[in-house]
Amino acid sequence: MTTFIMITRLSPEALRNPRALEDFEKRVMGHIRNDCPSVHWLHSWAVLGPSDYVDVFQAPDIDTAMQVSTIFRTFGRVHSEIWPATEWDRFKALLHALPDN
């Protein structure tokens, strides 16, 4: 499974009140569980800055990660970006496997 990091920014029109965030979350996560059962959610954070949320999940491939992003975009007025991620130790192992030139 590949790890993906998704940042999400809500549009000002997306939600009318703070409690609507929980409804949005339940609706979106329900669709992800039903439509992308192979996705394993690892972490979610609310953040300050240019994005409102950072989520980390695992998916078998990029197509499934794109489906996750599409579900978020479909059921709420949001902008999302998804980045594949590699744990640092694995990244160092990849570096060591490169030829010395």
Automatic annotation (TrEMBL):
InterPro entries reported for this sequence: GYD/TTHA1554
Listed Pfam families: GYD (PF08734)
Listed name of the protein: GYD domain-containing protein
